Amino acid sequence: MFSLRSFCAAALFALCLSSFPALAADPPSSDAVQQSLDKIADRKLPDAEQKALQQVLEQTLAFLNSKQDSEQKLEALKQQLAQAPKQTSENQRELARLKESKVVPVAQRYGGLDVPQLEQLLSQRSTQQSDLQSELNDANSLAITAQTRPERAQTEISANQTRIQQINAILKNGKDNGKTLSADQRNLLNAELASINAFNLLRRQELAGNSQLQDLGNSQHDLLTEKVARQEQEIQDLQTLINDKRRAQSQKTVADLSLEAQKSGGSSLLATESAANLKLSDYLLRGTDRLNELTQQNLKTKQQLDNLTQTDQALSEQINVLSGSLLLSKILYKQKQALPHLELDKGLADEIANIRLYQFDINQQREQMSTPTAYVEKLLATQPPENVTPQLRRTLLDLAITRSDLLERLNRELSALLNESITLQLNQKQLTSTAQGLRATLDEQMFWIPSNKPLDVEWFQNIWPRLQKQVATLPWTSSLSELSDGLTQRPLLFLPLLLLIGILTWRRKALYQKLNRLHADIGHFKRDSQWKTPLALLINVLLAMPVALGLALCGYALQIDARGQNANLGEALLQIALAWLVFYTAYRVLAPSGVAQLHFRWETAQVEFLRGWVRRLGLVVLALVAVVAVAEHQPAALADDVLGIGVVLTCYALMTWLLGRLLISSPTHHNASLFRKTVGVVFTALPVALFLAVCFGYYYTALKLSDRLIDTLYLMMIWLMVEATFVRGLSVAARRLAYQRALAKRQAARENGDSDIPVEEPKLDIEQVNQQSLRLIRLALLAGFVGALYLVWAELITVFAYLDNIILYEYTSGTGANMSMVPISLSDFLGAGVIIVITFVLAGNLPGLLEVLVLSRMNLAQGSAYATTTLLSYTIAGVGFVTTLSTLGVSWDKLQWLVAALSVGLGFGMQEIFANFISGIMILFERPVRIGDTITIGALSGTVSKIRIRATTITDFDRKDIIVPNKTFITGQLINWSLTDTVTRVTLKLGVDYGSDLDLVRSLLLQAARENPRVLKEPEPIVYFLNFGESTLDHELRMHVRDLGDRNPVLDEINRFINREFKKQHINISFRQMEIYLKNTQGLEYKLVPAEPSDKGNAPTGKTTLQPVNTTVTPATKDAPEPPELRLD
To answer: What domain count does the chain have?
Structure first.
């Protein structure tokens, strides 16, 4: 029948016939190109032109060689096609003859040969088996290549046609990229054109004879498969025959030695020696049995390894040709189901060591028995002379010779056993590696290719007939029968667990009563403890156990039975049991007046909301895990699984609604942190992504991710409950500590005679919890959660290696001859994103963890610890930035120039910021100022309240916070009043009138300082008369105070003392004086002088009068104005 494949082949044939270029000239010969290449140095061209010409000639020669290779393959293909019908017929006849021929048993054909001859024959058959296996691999490759040739040839010829058109266009224009073609470049294009034409002729001939090649490959495959199977059976039979002969020899030896032991009579020496020989013969027999066993294992392992190798080779070719197709997915599913179950001998390493040790002991005995006569004489020397007889000597000599022979045989047997063990160990390692690689390849390909057709309109139109067909084809009767048999045929397995379920059900009321008593103790200090919450959680788990244990018991029994669908149903029941245990426990924890409300102190509205949410989500998860568990283990049936697709799509939609409702409608969603909101958004988006994946045909991928998503949900729920338990435990401990402190206060009050102080029971306040302990616990829980999360997703991590095949771009690496193109894949891009996330997490948490775990336990200043953690944050950010760029292809040899340019540019443009940054580091480590120091910098004085990398905060004496750049502290003048010593000198300056008693002034000043308690005795206060001022005699009192806070108070107190005592002693404190003269319009000049004291007292009146300056002036007349009276305020 004329198929679509034949039509494509004919179309490609016609396309190739029309593809001959009209403009191509004959290509040069290989000899001519080689001569030009050898004489290129004679042209004396510049280096650049010579290298370019050399490259052109080498490419021309490579194309010519490729053309010659294609022509040779074409000739060989023609000969193969000419002989293909005959060879196919011969293969079919030989296969029929083999199937009709009767196989003569190996024991009948080779039973008369001894063990060495059989071992030589076995070696020959093993060599023939390897040759047949190699031929079978070639036949498989031929069949697979013929099967996939039309698709591959279509791609190759289409690409060649595009290149032919490009070459014709270049030859027609005579230019390439705007440059005129040289003769050598034309030769290069003609050679490439000839190479492409030869390749197309080869592919055309392959397409023409593809059916013949496919028949030939299939006939060879069938024939060689039969030969390989017969050869494997013959090898096994030969090995069995060899094992039987070895065991027969060993058994004969044991029988002979047993007979000799019985004939030894009453001589104790003969009995001892005979027993030793019998023991060696027994070990020889056991060694022979073990050698036979290892040989059989080795043969089976080698066959499995050959089969896996053949499967791996065929799979690689199928993946290359059928990548991304539904046919490939079906092939992959069948290959995965056909993978063998590996049964490895895990005790081989210890056995090899024991064999080596025992062989060393045997070699020592062989050295002792190297001369049997000397050994016998040594034995007889220990016997009394009257007991030594010629008969005893001859018998001992025969036993010694027999033991020597036994030791030789045992040594050979141990050597063979050791070699077989080592070979088996190596083969098992190779088999394990091959199986793991093949399984990883299958998982990777199955994960990234569609398993179903996309859910289009046609799928939804035919959903009801397909669903009816699927339900009708389900083996309901046989499945129920198998399920019943699996559950009833192992009653002993059920009895212990059924007994446990019965006890839990019987004690259910007692568990509720115990839980209520625990709830009643919460909040009462004397009855409350940290263990109440774990015990309450355990009781809730026990309340959920009966149903979970029943489901798990049924699932385990079905998995052991493994008939029909029992294994898949058993896995589904186990998953349902786990989901029930987790969600029902959470449902019980969220009960009214339950653990969440009483122990964890969660808000009532939040608990009620979460309880309803957990109930709905639990029902959805129960349905989802049942479908996932069954469908995931039947990948070959996914294309027709309408029922499963409908269930998972419904579950995904409901999960999206429930998770979105938790994110948006939760009573506490407004107070949630950004991290929790981000996690909520991600979890809400995951079911949407899985829904779309199923719609686009990635049903198997969605099932694999759903399984891990549900496990991750379990982990998050458990993590939240464990974290809340630890937080409550710390709260109880803090409350108990506060209560103990209250008792201590009351005890102290009683000792002081005051017993009226009541002891109040402190309230549970989370602020009293030790923050460092809480932070450490949360970090430990987070680390445990991340580790558990890795275990959940570890199996799927390997499938992301497929992303290495998606190339985003390439960059050049190396220079000159070492230059190469390095691809950057989607995996690298995602890896860079992971590095960025890890960098942010480490930069935000690792410095704090370091401070809590390490720096807080060291005797470091506050600034040093802050500087260390800050620099660590910057270092982590820098390393993460460089690593991210390196992952994206920006290597350091290129990045260093960017870093240098940025450093220079930023150094000029942001030099103040960098100067402040470096100054902050110097301040934090050198510590010229510390938090709490009182400083003066410029006109600013205050107390240092905060030191950061860029700036320092100073609180002045008006309680204003002033931000000062750190550069100011390094480059400016700084006064630190409390850096090393808080003792400071206070200086008081004052002046007295001329004519004052200077000794009295000194005495009063010293008295003021010495009597003041704020002034230090050492150094002693000092008074100096320093200067004759314009109107004062200047004195200076120097004194020292202990604290900075005493400076202003001591000045206030001493000034008041001086004012009081100087007034008593009539010592005037000078002040600056001025003489004021007034001149009126009549030319009269007056001097402003104080008025005389009033008659009522000596106190000044505060008034002034005008006194004429020139007394010779005529007295004023009646009309002359009176001098005005002025008052000085």
So the answer is: 7
